[in-house]
Amino acid sequence: MTTWRQDDLSVRKCVRHGLSKAHERDSSLSSSSPRGPQHLRVLLVWEVWAAVAAMMRLRRPSSLLWAAALTFMFFLYIALPSSAPPEPCLCGQQQHSLPPNALPKTHPLDKHKLALLIPFRDRFEELLEFAPFIHNFLNKQHKNHHIYVINQVDNLRFNRASLLNVGFLESSVDCDYIAMHDVDLLPLNPEVRYQFPEEGPYHVSAPHLHPRYHYPTFIGGILLVRREHFRHVDGLSNKYWGWGLEDDEFYARLKEAKLEIFRPGNLTSGIKDTFRL
C-alpha cells in the first residue's frame, strides 16, 4: 500500500504527461487550421480530461469531489452556446448554375379559363371517377379550368337546367366560358378538345360521336358556351323537372339568337370509342 508522499511524484508525472500529450495534439490541430473558439474548446477538453484522470488516480475523497466538480463544469461549458460570432456563409460563392436544357420544361396554361359545370345528385361513384379523370385530361391539353359540382339536395325531381344556371352564376368570377358536362360521360380520344368557343357554342359530344344519342338537334352531354352567349340567351329554362327536354329547349334558344353550333370533325374515333358512359 502506497502513501500519499510516495505516490505524489508519479501523480505529478502523470499530470505532466497528460498535459504534454494534450499540447502535442493541439499543436497538430493548429498546424492545419487557424486558432479560434473551436480550437480553445478542444484545448480545454484535453486539459480537463488530464486533470480529472490525475485526481482519480489519487483515490482521495477530496480529489474525487474535485474531479466530479470539474466534470460537471466541463459538461456545463459544452452545453452552453458559443458566444463567438458565426462564420460568414460562403453559400453564394459555391452555387453552380444549371444549363438551360437541364431545367424541366413547363407549358403555359391557356389564357382562357374553363368552368366545368357538373349537375349532380346521388352519383358519387361516377363523380369519384370523373373528377380526377377530367382533371388529368384537361391538364394534358394545358387548359386552365375549375370544376363546379352543383348538388341538388331536396326531394323534388331532378332539375338539370336549374343546376346549370346556378353553376353559371357561381363561376362568374374568373371563368370566361363554361362546359355543361354530364358526370357519367368521359372522353377517351385525346383529340377531343375543350378549346375556347370563339365563334359560337361548341358541342363536344356531337351526335356522330355520342354513344347513345344521335339525332341532329342533340346538344346534350358536353357543350362549351361563352359566358356572353349564355347570358345572351338568358340561360336554360327552369321549368323542366326530371330528365330530358331542357337541352332541346336550349337548342331552340341558341337558334333563335342566330348562334351557330360547331362540332368536332376529322376524328379517327366514332360512337364506340370517343366517349364512355
UniProtKB/TrEMBL annotation:
The keyword Kinase does not apply. Its main location: membrane. Pathway: Protein modification; protein glycosylation. GO terms for biological process: carbohydrate metabolic process; proteoglycan biosynthetic process. The keyword Transferase applies. Residues 201-268 form the Galactosyltransferase C-terminal domain. SUPFAM superfamilies: Nucleotide-diphospho-sugar transferases. One of its GO terms (molecular function) is xylosylprotein 4-beta-galactosyltransferase activity. The chain crosses the membrane at residues 63-80. GO terms for cellular component: Golgi apparatus; membrane. InterPro entries: Galactosyl_T, Galactosyl_T_C, Galactosyl_T_N, Nucleotide-diphossugar_trans. It is a single-pass type II membrane protein. It is found in: Membrane. Residues 110-194 form the Galactosyltransferase N-terminal domain. Belongs to the glycosyltransferase 7 family. This is Galactosyltransferase N-terminal domain-containing protein. It comes from Scylla olivacea.
